[in-house]
Structure formats: C-alpha cells, structure tokens
Design a protein that fits this description.
Shape: elongated
Radius of gyration: 17 Å
Distance between the termini: 20 Å
Largest sheet: 5 strands, antiparallel
Number of helices: 4
Structural class: alpha+beta
Order of helices and strands: EEEHHHEEH
Number of strands: 5
C-alpha cells in the first residue's frame, strides 16, 4: 500500500509585548521553533514553564492545516497565563514539512524509518 504524505507547519513562537508590563522571565523577541515534534531553542537558554504549559496544547493544532475561517488559522497570540503579566506569545506558521504515517507511528506493524533518522533530516 502506498503511503500518502501529510504536512505539518513548522512554527515560530515569539514573545511580544502586550498592554501591561511583562513580569515573567520571557523577554520580548525571545522565541523558539517547532519542527515536527521538536521544540528548538536557538537563542535562549531557558524558558519559563508556566507559559510553556499554556502554549503546548495549541502547538499541535497550529501545526495542522485548518480552514481559512477557523480561529486556529486567524488567531496568533496566546496570553501569558499570569494575569498580571503583559506578555503574549505569537505563533507564526512557517514552511510546511512532509511526513508519512510510517515515519511517525509507534504502531509496530506500521513503523518505518523515523523521520528524524532519515538522511536529509527535513521530514
């Protein structure tokens, strides 16, 4: 049976300032990337766990192709979970990355070479 590929967006999650001062340890302009299942922190050595906990449920949904009118396609900013903090996290969709079920499945009879072990490493 031929494997049909599916696509996920790579994402950039960047700290942007809101109306209130930021009180948490996430400086404006700091960012991380989502590439496949990986969180990549190119320029930051730390990231606060409470905003990360708030962001994580949105990331798999933002990676998927959605209808142009779906709020997941149009709304990009997530507020810091601290109600006193003005920090916002802007999730931007970048390029699409292609995967197959066999590259991403843990099911024993559906497994192939994991995408992260492929020679080109680009899914």
């Amino acid at each position: 049976m031929e494997e049909k590929p599916f696509e996920l967006f790579d994402l950039k999650v960047e700290v942007v300032a809101g109306e209130k001062p930021m009180v948490c340890n996430h400086p404006e302009g700091a960012y991380f990337l989502v590439e496949g299942e990986n969180l990549v922190f190119p320029d930051v050595n730390s990231f606060p766990m409470y905003p990360m906990a708030a962001l994580l449920p949105f990331l798999p949904a933002k990676q998927r192709v959605t209808d142009d009118n779906d709020w997941m396609s149009t709304d990009a900013d997530i507020a810091c979970p601290d109600p006193h903090c003005g920090g916002r996290f802007r999730i931007t969709r970048l390029k699409k990355r292609r995967f197959t079920h066999a590259e991403t499945s843990g099911l024993p009879d559906a497994r192939g070479t994991p995408y992260w072990q492929k020679a080109d490493g680009d899914g």
